[in-house]
Amino acid sequence: METSSFHNLTPAELRAAIRRGDWRKPTAGLAPRYVQVNLAILPAAHAADFQRFCQRNPKPCPLIAVSEVGDPRMTMLGADLDIRTDVPRYRVFQHGEEVAQPNNVLDHWRDDLVTFAIGCSFTFEHSLIEHGIGIRHIEQGRNVPMFRTGVQTTPAGKFSGPMVMTMRPMKAADAIRAIQITSRFPGVHGAPVHIGDPSLIGISDLSKPEYGDAVDVREGEIPVFWGCGVTPQAALLQAKPEFCITHAPGFMLITDLLNSDYAVI
Amino acid sequence: METSSFHNLTPAELRAAIRRGDWRKPTAGLAPRYVQVNLAILPAAHAADFQRFCQRNPKPCPLIAVSEVGDPRMTMLGADLDIRTDVPRYRVFQHGEEVAQPNNVLDHWRDDLVTFAIGCSFTFEHSLIEHGIGIRHIEQGRNVPMFRTGVQTTPAGKFSGPMVMTMRPMKAADAIRAIQITSRFPGVHGAPVHIGDPSLIGISDLSKPEYGDAVDVREGEIPVFWGCGVTPQAALLQAKPEFCITHAPGFMLITDLLNSDYAVI
What enzyme class is recorded for this protein (chains A, B) (predicted)? Predict the structure, then answer.
Protein backbone atom coordinates (compact mmCIF):
# COMPACT_ATOMS: atom_id res chain seq x y z
CA MET A 1 0.00 0.00 0.00
CA GLU A 2 1.14 3.54 -0.71
CA THR A 3 1.61 5.79 2.32
CA SER A 4 -1.21 8.04 1.17
CA SER A 5 -3.73 5.19 1.22
CA PHE A 6 -3.20 4.78 4.96
CA HIS A 7 -4.58 8.25 5.56
CA ASN A 8 -8.14 7.13 4.85
CA LEU A 9 -8.10 4.20 7.27
CA THR A 10 -10.05 4.00 10.52
CA PRO A 11 -8.18 3.62 13.82
CA ALA A 12 -9.06 -0.10 13.93
CA GLU A 13 -7.79 -0.57 10.36
CA LEU A 14 -4.60 1.28 11.17
CA ARG A 15 -4.00 -0.80 14.30
CA ALA A 16 -4.51 -3.97 12.23
CA ALA A 17 -2.02 -2.71 9.64
CA ILE A 18 0.50 -1.90 12.36
CA ARG A 19 -0.10 -5.32 13.96
CA ARG A 20 0.66 -7.00 10.62
CA GLY A 21 3.85 -4.96 10.24
CA ASP A 22 2.49 -2.97 7.27
CA TRP A 23 3.11 0.42 8.93
CA ARG A 24 6.38 1.00 10.80
CA LYS A 25 6.66 4.78 10.57
CA PRO A 26 5.64 7.58 12.96
CA THR A 27 1.88 8.01 13.34
CA ALA A 28 1.58 11.81 12.99
CA GLY A 29 -1.18 12.66 10.52
CA LEU A 30 -2.88 9.25 10.66
CA ALA A 31 -6.59 9.24 11.68
CA PRO A 32 -6.33 12.92 12.63
CA ARG A 33 -9.79 13.09 14.24
CA TYR A 34 -8.82 10.44 16.79
CA VAL A 35 -6.84 10.55 20.01
CA GLN A 36 -3.30 9.16 19.87
CA VAL A 37 -1.59 8.35 23.17
CA ASN A 38 1.83 8.04 24.76
CA LEU A 39 2.43 4.72 26.52
CA ALA A 40 4.18 3.88 29.75
CA ILE A 41 4.08 0.19 30.67
CA LEU A 42 5.53 -0.83 34.00
CA PRO A 43 5.31 -3.49 36.71
CA ALA A 44 2.34 -3.25 39.09
CA ALA A 45 4.72 -2.67 42.01
CA HIS A 46 5.41 0.82 40.61
CA ALA A 47 1.94 1.55 39.24
CA ALA A 48 0.43 3.30 42.26
CA ASP A 49 3.38 5.72 42.51
CA PHE A 50 3.34 6.40 38.77
CA GLN A 51 -0.40 7.03 38.70
CA ARG A 52 -0.02 9.42 41.65
CA PHE A 53 2.74 11.19 39.70
CA CYS A 54 0.41 11.63 36.73
CA GLN A 55 -2.43 12.83 38.97
CA ARG A 56 -0.14 15.47 40.48
CA ASN A 57 1.14 16.68 37.11
CA PRO A 58 -1.92 16.71 34.84
CA LYS A 59 -0.57 19.23 32.34
CA PRO A 60 2.44 17.17 31.20
CA CYS A 61 0.89 13.80 32.18
CA PRO A 62 -2.81 13.78 31.21
CA LEU A 63 -3.95 10.25 31.97
CA ILE A 64 -6.42 8.92 29.38
CA ALA A 65 -6.64 5.32 30.61
CA VAL A 66 -4.99 2.73 32.85
CA SER A 67 -5.14 -1.02 32.14
CA GLU A 68 -5.88 -3.85 34.51
CA VAL A 69 -2.76 -5.61 35.81
CA GLY A 70 -1.31 -7.96 33.17
CA ASP A 71 -4.11 -7.32 30.67
CA PRO A 72 -2.77 -6.35 27.22
CA ARG A 73 -6.23 -5.26 26.09
CA MET A 74 -7.67 -1.83 26.75
CA THR A 75 -11.18 -1.98 25.39
CA MET A 76 -11.91 1.57 26.54
CA LEU A 77 -9.45 2.68 23.83
CA GLY A 78 -10.52 0.19 21.13
CA ALA A 79 -12.43 -3.11 21.15
CA ASP A 80 -9.73 -5.01 19.24
CA LEU A 81 -6.77 -3.16 20.70
CA ASP A 82 -3.71 -5.11 21.86
CA ILE A 83 -1.07 -3.10 23.68
CA ARG A 84 1.63 -5.63 22.74
CA THR A 85 1.31 -5.28 18.95
CA ASP A 86 -0.52 -2.09 17.99
CA VAL A 87 2.31 0.45 18.21
CA PRO A 88 4.79 0.63 15.29
CA ARG A 89 7.85 0.84 17.50
CA TYR A 90 8.48 0.31 21.21
CA ARG A 91 11.38 0.90 23.56
CA VAL A 92 12.18 -1.73 26.21
CA PHE A 93 14.20 -0.73 29.26
CA GLN A 94 15.93 -2.57 32.08
CA HIS A 95 17.06 -0.50 35.06
CA GLY A 96 16.66 2.66 32.96
CA GLU A 97 18.82 1.38 30.07
CA GLU A 98 17.27 0.72 26.68
CA VAL A 99 17.71 -2.93 25.70
CA ALA A 100 15.53 -3.17 22.56
CA GLN A 101 13.42 -1.19 20.05
CA PRO A 102 11.07 -3.93 18.82
CA ASN A 103 7.99 -3.64 16.56
CA ASN A 104 5.96 -5.59 19.10
CA VAL A 105 6.47 -6.64 22.71
CA LEU A 106 4.91 -10.11 22.61
CA ASP A 107 8.18 -11.63 23.84
CA HIS A 108 8.65 -8.99 26.53
CA TRP A 109 5.15 -9.13 28.02
CA ARG A 110 4.73 -9.99 31.71
CA ASP A 111 1.66 -10.78 33.78
CA ASP A 112 2.42 -7.97 36.22
CA LEU A 113 2.51 -5.11 33.71
CA VAL A 114 0.18 -2.09 33.91
CA THR A 115 -0.24 0.19 30.90
CA PHE A 116 -0.71 3.95 31.23
CA ALA A 117 -2.12 5.75 28.17
CA ILE A 118 -1.21 9.43 28.33
CA GLY A 119 -2.66 12.14 26.10
CA CYS A 120 -0.65 13.64 23.26
CA SER A 121 -0.56 17.11 21.74
CA PHE A 122 -1.79 15.80 18.36
CA THR A 123 -5.29 16.22 19.83
CA PHE A 124 -5.08 19.94 20.46
CA GLU A 125 -2.93 20.59 17.38
CA HIS A 126 -5.76 19.18 15.26
CA SER A 127 -8.11 21.70 16.88
CA LEU A 128 -5.64 24.60 16.45
CA ILE A 129 -5.29 23.81 12.74
CA GLU A 130 -9.06 23.59 12.33
CA HIS A 131 -9.21 27.09 13.82
CA GLY A 132 -6.72 28.33 11.23
CA ILE A 133 -3.73 28.60 13.56
CA GLY A 134 -0.51 27.53 11.84
CA ILE A 135 1.71 25.05 13.66
CA ARG A 136 5.27 25.91 12.69
CA HIS A 137 6.87 22.47 13.04
CA ILE A 138 4.12 20.92 10.89
CA GLU A 139 4.55 23.68 8.27
CA GLN A 140 8.30 23.05 8.32
CA GLY A 141 7.93 19.26 8.20
CA ARG A 142 9.75 18.80 11.50
CA ASN A 143 9.15 17.16 14.86
CA VAL A 144 7.88 19.50 17.58
CA PRO A 145 10.70 21.12 19.62
CA MET A 146 10.75 19.84 23.20
CA PHE A 147 12.68 21.45 26.05
CA ARG A 148 13.77 20.07 29.40
CA THR A 149 12.86 23.10 31.53
CA GLY A 150 13.81 24.38 34.95
CA VAL A 151 10.22 23.87 36.12
CA GLN A 152 10.07 20.86 38.43
CA THR A 153 7.23 18.36 38.46
CA THR A 154 5.51 17.49 41.75
CA PRO A 155 7.17 14.22 42.84
CA ALA A 156 5.31 11.05 43.82
CA GLY A 157 7.21 8.15 45.35
CA LYS A 158 10.32 7.54 43.23
CA PHE A 159 9.02 9.60 40.29
CA SER A 160 10.20 13.19 39.85
CA GLY A 161 12.19 15.40 37.51
CA PRO A 162 11.92 18.46 35.29
CA MET A 163 8.85 19.28 33.24
CA VAL A 164 9.46 18.83 29.52
CA MET A 165 7.57 21.33 27.39
CA THR A 166 6.78 21.64 23.69
CA MET A 167 7.08 25.08 22.08
CA ARG A 168 5.06 26.58 19.25
CA PRO A 169 5.86 30.14 18.11
CA MET A 170 2.83 32.31 17.24
CA LYS A 171 1.76 35.87 16.65
CA ALA A 172 0.18 37.40 19.77
CA ALA A 173 -3.39 37.18 18.46
CA ASP A 174 -2.92 33.49 17.61
CA ALA A 175 -1.31 32.85 21.00
CA ILE A 176 -4.35 34.32 22.74
CA ARG A 177 -6.71 32.22 20.60
CA ALA A 178 -4.54 29.14 21.16
CA ILE A 179 -4.84 29.62 24.92
CA GLN A 180 -8.62 29.72 24.55
CA ILE A 181 -8.75 26.68 22.27
CA THR A 182 -6.39 24.45 24.25
CA SER A 183 -8.14 25.39 27.51
CA ARG A 184 -11.06 23.38 26.13
CA PHE A 185 -8.85 20.26 26.33
CA PRO A 186 -7.76 19.98 29.98
CA GLY A 187 -7.62 16.20 29.60
CA VAL A 188 -5.00 16.46 26.84
CA HIS A 189 -2.34 18.91 28.19
CA GLY A 190 -4.82 21.81 28.31
CA ALA A 191 -3.75 25.44 28.39
CA PRO A 192 -0.10 26.46 27.98
CA VAL A 193 2.13 26.50 31.06
CA HIS A 194 4.26 29.43 29.88
CA ILE A 195 4.31 32.16 27.24
CA GLY A 196 7.10 34.54 26.31
CA ASP A 197 10.62 34.79 27.75
CA PRO A 198 12.15 31.27 27.65
CA SER A 199 14.81 32.18 30.23
CA LEU A 200 12.10 32.43 32.90
CA ILE A 201 11.63 28.66 32.67
CA GLY A 202 15.33 27.85 32.40
CA ILE A 203 15.62 27.64 28.61
CA SER A 204 18.76 29.39 27.36
CA ASP A 205 18.48 28.77 23.61
CA LEU A 206 15.28 28.14 21.66
CA SER A 207 17.33 26.79 18.76
CA LYS A 208 18.60 23.89 20.87
CA PRO A 209 15.68 21.73 22.04
CA GLU A 210 16.61 18.61 24.02
CA TYR A 211 14.18 16.49 21.95
CA GLY A 212 12.66 16.93 18.49
CA ASP A 213 13.73 19.65 16.07
CA ALA A 214 14.27 23.40 16.29
CA VAL A 215 11.80 25.57 14.36
CA ASP A 216 11.96 29.15 13.10
CA VAL A 217 10.75 31.83 15.52
CA ARG A 218 9.95 34.91 13.46
CA GLU A 219 9.99 38.63 14.21
CA GLY A 220 7.15 39.59 16.53
CA GLU A 221 6.24 36.03 17.47
CA ILE A 222 5.84 34.83 21.03
CA PRO A 223 6.90 31.32 22.04
CA VAL A 224 4.05 29.36 23.63
CA PHE A 225 4.93 26.40 25.87
CA TRP A 226 2.77 23.38 26.72
CA GLY A 227 3.37 20.45 29.09
CA CYS A 228 4.76 17.52 27.09
CA GLY A 229 4.12 13.77 27.33
CA VAL A 230 7.87 13.17 27.33
CA THR A 231 7.78 14.38 30.97
CA PRO A 232 6.36 11.11 32.39
CA GLN A 233 8.77 9.09 30.21
CA ALA A 234 11.69 11.11 31.57
CA ALA A 235 10.44 10.59 35.15
CA LEU A 236 10.05 6.89 34.44
CA LEU A 237 13.58 6.49 33.09
CA GLN A 238 15.05 8.59 35.89
CA ALA A 239 13.38 6.28 38.45
CA LYS A 240 15.07 3.28 36.72
CA PRO A 241 12.51 0.56 37.47
CA GLU A 242 13.95 -2.91 36.82
CA PHE A 243 11.73 -3.15 33.74
CA CYS A 244 9.51 -0.91 31.65
CA ILE A 245 8.29 -0.37 28.10
CA THR A 246 7.34 2.83 26.27
CA HIS A 247 6.37 3.68 22.71
CA ALA A 248 9.20 5.15 20.63
CA PRO A 249 8.82 8.97 20.30
CA GLY A 250 6.40 9.76 17.48
CA PHE A 251 5.26 6.14 17.17
CA MET A 252 2.01 6.51 19.10
CA LEU A 253 -0.95 4.27 19.90
CA ILE A 254 -3.99 5.25 17.80
CA THR A 255 -7.25 4.92 19.73
CA ASP A 256 -10.96 4.94 18.84
CA LEU A 257 -11.54 8.00 21.04
CA LEU A 258 -12.49 11.17 19.19
CA ASN A 259 -10.42 14.28 19.86
CA SER A 260 -13.72 16.14 20.18
CA ASP A 261 -14.70 13.91 23.13
CA TYR A 262 -11.92 15.62 25.06
CA ALA A 263 -13.25 19.16 24.54
CA VAL A 264 -14.98 20.19 27.76
CA ILE A 265 -16.83 23.02 26.04
CA MET B 1 -17.78 31.83 69.19
CA GLU B 2 -21.06 32.42 67.42
CA THR B 3 -21.68 30.41 64.24
CA SER B 4 -21.70 33.59 62.17
CA SER B 5 -18.18 34.49 63.25
CA PHE B 6 -16.85 31.32 61.64
CA HIS B 7 -17.92 32.58 58.24
CA ASN B 8 -15.10 35.12 58.12
CA LEU B 9 -12.33 32.65 58.90
CA THR B 10 -9.68 31.46 56.45
CA PRO B 11 -9.42 27.76 55.58
CA ALA B 12 -6.39 27.40 57.90
CA GLU B 13 -8.29 29.09 60.76
CA LEU B 14 -11.30 26.86 60.14
CA ARG B 15 -9.16 23.72 60.12
CA ALA B 16 -7.58 24.84 63.40
CA ALA B 17 -11.03 25.42 64.92
CA ILE B 18 -12.18 21.98 63.75
CA ARG B 19 -8.96 20.42 65.10
CA ARG B 20 -9.66 22.00 68.52
CA GLY B 21 -13.24 20.70 68.47
CA ASP B 22 -14.77 24.19 68.18
CA TRP B 23 -16.72 23.36 65.00
CA ARG B 24 -18.54 20.02 64.79
CA LYS B 25 -21.25 20.88 62.25
CA PRO B 26 -21.47 20.44 58.47
CA THR B 27 -19.10 22.66 56.50
CA ALA B 28 -21.48 24.00 53.81
CA GLY B 29 -21.13 27.78 53.53
CA LEU B 30 -17.76 27.98 55.29
CA ALA B 31 -14.91 29.61 53.30
CA PRO B 32 -17.09 29.59 50.17
CA ARG B 33 -14.29 30.68 47.81
CA TYR B 34 -12.25 27.59 48.68
CA VAL B 35 -12.41 23.99 47.52
CA GLN B 36 -13.91 21.48 49.96
CA VAL B 37 -13.28 17.80 49.35
CA ASN B 38 -14.74 14.37 49.98
CA LEU B 39 -12.33 11.93 51.64
CA ALA B 40 -11.71 8.23 51.08
CA ILE B 41 -8.92 6.79 53.23
CA LEU B 42 -7.96 3.19 52.63
CA PRO B 43 -5.06 0.73 52.96
CA ALA B 44 -2.34 0.97 50.30
CA ALA B 45 -3.19 -2.56 49.14
CA HIS B 46 -6.42 -1.18 47.66
CA ALA B 47 -5.11 2.22 46.56
CA ALA B 48 -4.08 1.38 42.98
CA ASP B 49 -7.50 -0.13 42.20
CA PHE B 50 -9.33 2.77 43.81
CA GLN B 51 -7.29 5.38 41.96
CA ARG B 52 -7.95 3.53 38.70
CA PHE B 53 -11.66 3.58 39.56
CA CYS B 54 -11.53 7.37 40.04
CA GLN B 55 -9.56 7.82 36.79
CA ARG B 56 -12.21 5.86 34.88
CA ASN B 57 -15.11 7.77 36.40
CA PRO B 58 -13.98 11.40 36.50
CA LYS B 59 -17.45 12.95 36.59
CA PRO B 60 -18.57 11.36 39.89
CA CYS B 61 -14.99 10.87 41.20
CA PRO B 62 -12.90 13.96 40.35
CA LEU B 63 -9.58 13.33 42.07
CA ILE B 64 -8.08 16.50 43.57
CA ALA B 65 -5.13 14.92 45.42
CA VAL B 66 -3.70 11.62 46.68
CA SER B 67 -1.47 11.37 49.76
CA GLU B 68 1.75 9.47 50.19
CA VAL B 69 1.30 6.09 51.94
CA GLY B 70 0.86 6.56 55.70
CA ASP B 71 1.35 10.32 55.58
CA PRO B 72 -1.48 12.21 57.33
CA ARG B 73 -0.30 15.51 55.85
CA MET B 74 -1.34 16.75 52.42
CA THR B 75 0.60 19.97 51.97
CA MET B 76 -0.79 20.41 48.45
CA LEU B 77 -4.16 21.06 50.11
CA GLY B 78 -2.88 23.15 53.04
CA ALA B 79 0.51 23.60 54.71
CA ASP B 80 -0.77 22.81 58.21
CA LEU B 81 -3.37 20.27 57.16
CA ASP B 82 -3.72 17.02 59.11
CA ILE B 83 -6.07 14.45 57.59
CA ARG B 84 -6.59 12.82 61.03
CA THR B 85 -8.03 15.86 62.78
CA ASP B 86 -9.25 18.48 60.30
CA VAL B 87 -12.67 17.09 59.41
CA PRO B 88 -15.52 17.68 61.88
CA ARG B 89 -16.87 14.14 61.64
CA TYR B 90 -15.51 10.90 60.17
CA ARG B 91 -16.93 7.45 59.51
CA VAL B 92 -14.76 4.40 60.25
CA PHE B 93 -15.59 1.09 58.55
CA GLN B 94 -14.47 -2.50 58.97
CA HIS B 95 -15.42 -4.91 56.18
CA GLY B 96 -17.99 -2.40 54.93
CA GLU B 97 -19.68 -1.98 58.34
CA GLU B 98 -19.54 1.35 60.14
CA VAL B 99 -17.84 0.95 63.52
CA ALA B 100 -17.47 4.60 64.64
CA GLN B 101 -18.29 8.23 63.80
CA PRO B 102 -15.43 10.01 65.60
CA ASN B 103 -14.43 13.70 65.49
CA ASN B 104 -10.86 12.71 64.71
CA VAL B 105 -9.15 9.49 63.63
CA LEU B 106 -5.92 9.78 65.62
CA ASP B 107 -6.65 6.44 67.30
CA HIS B 108 -7.63 4.77 64.01
CA TRP B 109 -4.65 5.91 61.92
CA ARG B 110 -2.41 3.28 60.31
CA ASP B 111 0.93 3.56 58.54
CA ASP B 112 -0.45 1.94 55.39
CA LEU B 113 -3.31 4.38 54.75
CA VAL B 114 -3.63 6.40 51.56
CA THR B 115 -5.97 9.41 51.43
CA PHE B 116 -7.95 10.33 48.33
CA ALA B 117 -9.33 13.89 48.20
CA ILE B 118 -12.25 14.03 45.77
CA GLY B 119 -13.88 17.22 44.50
CA CYS B 120 -17.26 18.34 45.79
CA SER B 121 -20.14 20.20 44.15
CA PHE B 122 -19.76 23.15 46.55
CA THR B 123 -17.14 24.42 44.09
CA PHE B 124 -19.44 24.70 41.09
CA GLU B 125 -22.48 25.71 43.19
CA HIS B 126 -20.48 28.74 44.33
CA SER B 127 -19.94 29.66 40.69
CA LEU B 128 -23.59 29.06 39.75
CA ILE B 129 -24.74 31.34 42.58
CA GLU B 130 -22.26 34.03 41.52
CA HIS B 131 -23.85 33.85 38.07
CA GLY B 132 -27.29 34.41 39.58
CA ILE B 133 -28.56 30.85 39.20
CA GLY B 134 -30.66 29.80 42.19
CA ILE B 135 -29.84 26.46 43.82
CA ARG B 136 -33.13 25.07 45.09
CA HIS B 137 -31.83 22.99 48.01
CA ILE B 138 -29.85 25.98 49.31
CA GLU B 139 -32.91 28.25 48.95
CA GLN B 140 -34.98 25.67 50.81
CA GLY B 141 -32.32 25.11 53.51
CA ARG B 142 -31.99 21.43 52.67
CA ASN B 143 -29.25 18.98 51.73
CA VAL B 144 -28.87 18.36 47.99
CA PRO B 145 -31.01 15.43 46.74
CA MET B 146 -28.84 12.48 45.66
CA PHE B 147 -30.07 9.53 43.61
CA ARG B 148 -28.63 6.06 43.14
CA THR B 149 -29.18 5.79 39.37
CA GLY B 150 -29.32 2.97 36.84
CA VAL B 151 -26.16 4.32 35.19
CA GLN B 152 -23.23 2.03 36.03
CA THR B 153 -19.73 3.26 36.74
CA THR B 154 -16.78 1.75 34.85
CA PRO B 155 -15.37 -0.85 37.26
CA ALA B 156 -11.72 -1.12 38.32
CA GLY B 157 -10.52 -4.11 40.30
CA LYS B 158 -12.99 -4.70 43.13
CA PHE B 159 -14.59 -1.25 42.80
CA SER B 160 -17.85 -0.85 40.88
CA GLY B 161 -21.48 0.10 41.35
CA PRO B 162 -24.12 2.59 40.26
CA MET B 163 -23.38 6.24 39.65
CA VAL B 164 -24.92 8.46 42.32
CA MET B 165 -26.09 11.82 40.98
CA THR B 166 -27.18 15.08 42.54
CA MET B 167 -30.21 16.86 41.07
CA ARG B 168 -30.90 20.58 40.80
CA PRO B 169 -34.16 21.73 39.16
CA MET B 170 -33.89 24.80 36.92
CA LYS B 171 -35.69 26.76 34.24
CA ALA B 172 -34.43 25.84 30.76
CA ALA B 173 -32.42 29.04 30.29
CA ASP B 174 -30.71 28.51 33.65
CA ALA B 175 -30.05 24.85 32.80
CA ILE B 176 -28.32 25.88 29.57
CA ARG B 177 -26.23 28.47 31.43
CA ALA B 178 -25.46 25.95 34.20
CA ILE B 179 -24.12 23.51 31.58
CA GLN B 180 -21.82 26.24 30.28
CA ILE B 181 -20.64 27.28 33.74
CA THR B 182 -20.03 23.80 35.16
CA SER B 183 -18.22 22.78 31.95
CA ARG B 184 -15.52 25.19 33.07
CA PHE B 185 -14.92 22.91 36.09
CA PRO B 186 -14.05 19.47 34.64
CA GLY B 187 -11.86 18.80 37.68
CA VAL B 188 -14.82 19.20 40.05
CA HIS B 189 -17.63 17.06 38.52
CA GLY B 190 -17.80 19.22 35.38
CA ALA B 191 -20.84 19.30 33.09
CA PRO B 192 -24.07 17.49 33.98
CA VAL B 193 -24.40 13.82 33.05
CA HIS B 194 -28.16 13.98 32.39
CA ILE B 195 -30.95 16.51 31.92
CA GLY B 196 -34.67 15.95 31.77
CA ASP B 197 -36.63 12.69 32.12
CA PRO B 198 -35.43 10.97 35.33
CA SER B 199 -36.80 7.58 34.21
CA LEU B 200 -34.14 7.43 31.47
CA ILE B 201 -31.49 7.03 34.18
CA GLY B 202 -33.52 4.67 36.32
CA ILE B 203 -35.03 7.20 38.76
CA SER B 204 -38.71 6.49 39.40
CA ASP B 205 -39.56 9.26 41.86
CA LEU B 206 -37.77 12.60 42.20
CA SER B 207 -39.38 13.09 45.62
CA LYS B 208 -37.54 10.04 47.02
CA PRO B 209 -33.79 10.58 46.82
CA GLU B 210 -31.63 7.83 48.32
CA TYR B 211 -29.43 10.40 50.11
CA GLY B 212 -30.05 14.01 51.17
CA ASP B 213 -33.42 15.73 50.97
CA ALA B 214 -36.12 16.07 48.32
CA VAL B 215 -36.61 19.56 46.90
CA ASP B 216 -39.49 21.23 45.06
CA VAL B 217 -39.49 20.84 41.27
CA ARG B 218 -41.72 23.58 39.87
CA GLU B 219 -43.86 23.87 36.76
CA GLY B 220 -41.72 24.22 33.64
CA GLU B 221 -38.46 23.30 35.37
CA ILE B 222 -36.06 20.69 34.07
CA PRO B 223 -34.12 18.45 36.47
CA VAL B 224 -30.36 18.67 35.91
CA PHE B 225 -28.16 15.79 37.14
CA TRP B 226 -24.48 15.87 38.02
CA GLY B 227 -22.09 13.08 39.05
CA CYS B 228 -21.89 12.96 42.85
CA GLY B 229 -18.95 12.34 45.19
CA VAL B 230 -21.06 9.79 47.08
CA THR B 231 -20.39 7.46 44.10
CA PRO B 232 -16.81 6.59 45.14
CA GLN B 233 -17.94 6.16 48.77
CA ALA B 234 -20.65 3.75 47.65
CA ALA B 235 -18.12 1.82 45.52
CA LEU B 236 -15.76 1.74 48.48
CA LEU B 237 -18.36 0.37 50.88
CA GLN B 238 -19.61 -2.15 48.32
CA ALA B 239 -16.03 -3.47 47.92
CA LYS B 240 -15.90 -3.99 51.73
CA PRO B 241 -12.16 -3.52 52.32
CA GLU B 242 -11.14 -4.75 55.77
CA PHE B 243 -10.67 -1.14 56.85
CA CYS B 244 -11.44 2.34 55.53
CA ILE B 245 -12.33 5.83 56.68
CA THR B 246 -14.45 8.51 55.03
CA HIS B 247 -15.71 11.94 56.04
CA ALA B 248 -19.33 11.99 57.24
CA PRO B 249 -21.67 13.34 54.51
CA GLY B 250 -21.65 17.14 54.60
CA PHE B 251 -18.67 17.27 56.98
CA MET B 252 -16.02 18.03 54.37
CA LEU B 253 -12.31 18.83 54.43
CA ILE B 254 -11.73 22.56 53.74
CA THR B 255 -8.61 23.16 51.63
CA ASP B 256 -6.51 26.20 50.72
CA LEU B 257 -7.25 25.68 47.00
CA LEU B 258 -9.37 28.38 45.39
CA ASN B 259 -12.49 27.27 43.52
CA SER B 260 -11.37 29.58 40.72
CA ASP B 261 -8.16 27.56 40.31
CA TYR B 262 -10.37 24.75 39.02
CA ALA B 263 -11.96 26.80 36.24
CA VAL B 264 -10.23 25.80 32.99
CA ILE B 265 -11.48 28.88 31.18
Answer: lyase
Quote the number of domains for chain A. 2
Chain-centroid distance, C-alpha A201: 21
Which residue of chain A comes nearest to B63, CA vs CA?
Answer: A55
Q: Assess whether B117 and B170 both reside in one domain.
A: no
Q: Check whether residue A14 and residue A58 sit in a common domain.
A: yes
Q: Would you state the pLDDT for residue A252?
A: 95
Structural domain span for residue B142: 124-231
- How many interchain CB pairs under 8 A, A with B? 58
At A3 the pLDDT is 64
Q: Which residues of A touch B181 (CB under 8 A)?
A: none
A44 CB neighbours in chain B (<8 A) are 48
Claim to verify: residue B12 and residue B115 sit in the same structural domain: yes
Angle formed at CA A56 by CA B159 and CA A52, multiple of 5 degrees: 40
In this predicted structure, what is the pLDDT of residue A41?
98
**B65 contacts A55? CB cut-off 8 A:** yes
CATH code (residue A239): 3.40.1640.10
Sequence letter at residue B245: I
Nearest to A187 by CA among A117, A237, A114: A117
Answer yes or no: do A163 and A202 share one domain. yes
Long-range contacts of A238-241 (CB under 8 A, 24+ apart): A238/A96, A238/A159, A238/A160, A238/A161, A239/A46, A239/A96, A239/A158, A239/A159, A239/A160, A240/A95, A240/A96, A241/A42, A241/A43, A241/A46, A241/A93, A241/A95, A241/A96
Instruction: Name which of B44, B55, B114 is nearest A63 (Cβ-Cβ).
Output: B55
Any chain B CB within 8 A of the CB of A160? no
Question: What residues of chain B score a pLDDT lower than 50?
Answer: none
Identify the CATH number of the domain in which residue B135 sits. Answer: 3.30.2040.10
pLDDT for the residue B8: 87
In a domain, A99, yes or no: yes
- pLDDT recorded at residue B3: 65
B129 with B174, same domain: the answer is: yes
For residue B53, what is the nearest residue in chain A, using CA coordinates? A66
A196 in any annotated domain:
yes
List of chain A residues whose C-beta atoms are within 8 Å of the C-beta of residue B44: 48
Residue A265 lies in a domain: no
For residue A191, what is the nearest residue in chain B, using CA coordinates?
B264
Q: Within the 171-190 window of chain B, which residues sit less than 8 Å (CB to CB) from chain A?
A: 180, 183-184, 186-187, 190
User: In which residue ranges of chain A is pLDDT below 50?
Assistant: none
Answer yes or no: are the C-beta atoms of B128 and B178 closer than 8 Å: yes
Q: Is residue A224 part of a domain?
A: yes
Question: Could you read off the pLDDT of A16-34 as tens digits, one per residue?
Answer: 999 999 999 999 889 999 9
B65 vs A: CB within 8 A: yes
B52 vs A: CB within 8 A: yes
CB nearest to B48's CB, from A51, A65, A76: A51
**ipTM, interface predicted TM-score of the complex:** 0.83
